[in-house]
Specification:
alpha/beta, Zinc Finger, Delta Prime, domain 3, Rossmann fold, binds zinc ion, Helicase, Ruva Protein, domain 3, 4 domains
Amino acid sequence: MIEYKVLSRKYRPKKLKEVIGQDFTVRTLTNAFANEKLAHAFLFTGIRGVGKTTIARIIAMGLNCETENKPTANPCGICSNCKEILKDRYEDVLEIDAASNTGVDDVREIISSLKYRPSKGRYKVFIIDEVHMLSNSAFNALLKTIEEPPSFVKFIFCTTEIQKIPITIVSRCQKYNLNRVTLTALCNYLEEIAELEKLNISKDAINIIARNSEGSIRDSLTILDQCILSFNNENIDVESVHQTIGLTSQSSLLELYINIVNGDIINANKVLHNIYKNGAAPKQIIDDLLNVTYSLISSLAANTNIEIYEKDKFQTIIDKCDIPFLNQVWHMLLKGKDEVNKVSLQMEALEILIIRIAYGSQLPSLETVVKKIKEDNNDELNLNLKDNNIGNDIKKILDTFPEGKVLKN
Ligand SMILES: [Zn+2]
């Protein structure tokens, strides 16, 4: 059997110029290499899977690559130093996971090894991953060393939680904040991988994978891996991705939405229970509905068709909604999310929420009501709020919106 190499390892960048979606960091580091202005200590922060340790390893390799007679941002990857670093067998590059080596002794061991020059290459490089996990005493032990390390030593720290690192450490490092990779960059990258891997995967499927990775390259490749394992050489389409990551299918979600805006409570409930039966948690369903609402609002606001799958259903909803109504739905969903948290039977709270929104969708808009009253009154509105004698027309409006309240000042 051929060993399956996960995509994130197979396609891990080996040069800075191959790193995806971190243009600013890549440019700054490349310049630092070119001008030989590399710091003693680097600190990379950012969410999981955006390239922190990947860049750390490239730097380690770049510092020791033998092809040029000075450090390079784009190491060759084939000289003996590069090869050994890639295989994690190079004794002067030490990668430590602070999640399992949190103690002061581990740090003291590093510090005592700094006395010796690197055995082969130019630099000793210590990569400390999840560095925020180090204990306080470990940080204290590091402090002095980072301030004035021997010229042949570089520290590279990576963390998802920079706020947990003592400021005294942070201020001694050259700091790089890696951002979430943009949706477009992720989609383009996944398309490239799909081509290299000769996958039958639709553009829409790639788009969903990218969206659900929330800007993490590693997450996106992990989902793609799972799809490949589940569906082999078959076509990977939107439904296969949904199945793989246990997402509510976009199709049933939009169907739920259509029933809501039609005020069809019975069918909305049917679809809702189907979605639930297929494994979606009530809170997830609300999040998904929020996401659809967001797409609808931005599509209406920009007055353009945003790139979306299930276009017809999407359009059906757009045709029936305006921004004020969707804005109201957005707020009701957000409020509903709180309510769901407060009850033990979350599905019941969600059902009530769906009924409330569906009911609200059938009410005329405030604008229509006011216009109607104005028409009846020769363009006059009685909005007198004095004492308990609230204006007649406000009463009429309130009759139309039973949930409304009058705020007196
Ligand atoms: Zn090399």
